[in-house]
Design goal:
Blueprint: E1 6-12, E2 25-31, H1 33-46, H2 50-80, H3 87-96
Antiparallel strand pairs: 1-2
């Protein structure tokens, strides 16, 4: 590891409102010291542990990526069925917004 990165080794668990607890695990990430400082300051401001913030960020990232992949899959399926705008339809829409 070079001097330009910081390692964060973290154990995590998440308690849900229902009382369930997500299985614990451990991971290590390498981030630059500035991002580590920002994470430390944010954790202090929010009065939450850094590993909880990292876990939430990963959860949010995965949620967005899964949504995007699903939307792409659906769009490809629609295209396979011919459910897309023609060039003429796109031109018509574009012309609606052009100044006269």
């Amino acid at each position: 590891m070079d001097k330009s990165s910081t390692s964060i080794i973290s154990s995590y668990s998440h308690d849900y409102p229902s009382g369930e607890t997500m299985e614990k695990g451990t991971f290590m990430i390498h981030i630059d010291p500035e991002k580590d400082n920002q994470l430390t300051m944010l954790a202090a401001q929010l009065n939450r542990p850094k590993n909880e913030l990292v876990s939430q960020a990963i959860e949010n990232f995965l949620e967005v990526q899964n949504w995007q992949m699903e939307q792409t899959r659906l769009a490809m399926q629609e295209a396979d069925f011919g459910l897309y705008a023609t060039d003429e339809e796109l031109d018509e829409i574009e012309n609606q917004y052009k100044p006269s």
